[in-house]
């Protein structure tokens, strides 16, 4: 079974578990592992598109998520890219903007592991020792803004976060420091996404 099929089953199960756990009679018994929200993100160094689920921790001081990202061959110009990411976002503060709206500047970091064929954790035998460094893991830093909207009249979706981020990967920062041919403006990318609360 291809990884996309496995992940599709995983996402459907998350929606089912979340919906089932939010039934009025079951809210008290919600298990710790049931996510607080599901996420969809476009771009941001963790895939052209990524999906997953997350938790609000420490009284909403930290949002932490497990995501699957995908880049098709048409964009990567090589093999398909499959990524697993643990993303951590910190709302710096919150300000209410009228009824049911809250805005927050955000900052955070992510750790990404490529599970496809475009990277390696140990140097393949075809290369001399020290020729390349392992490139399967990357660390991303980002900042941006998030708007939260409560849907008090909705029976399905309780709320949503809409966010915009600017970020970079540690390797790109290294290129800025060590190469005169790479400028700071070359290494930053943008992303948009949404979190849905059920």
Spatial arrangement of strands, main beta sheet: 1-2-3-4-6-7-8-9
How much helical structure, as a percent, in the residues? 10-25%
SS-based class = alpha+beta
Coarse morphology: elongated
How does this structure look, described?
The protein has 198 residues and is α+β, with helices and mostly antiparallel strands. The chain has one domain (3-197). 16% of the residues lie in helices and 44% in strands. The protein is built from three helices and nine strands; from the N terminus they run H-E-E-E-H-E-E-E-E-E-H-E. It has helices at residues 3-21, 73-76, 170-178; strands at 37-43, 49-57, 62-71, 81-91, 95-96, 101-114, 137-150, 159-169, 189-197. It has an eight-stranded antiparallel β-barrel. Strand 7 and strand 8 (159-169) form a beta hairpin. The protein is elongated, with a radius of gyration of 19 Å. It starts with a helix and ends with a strand.
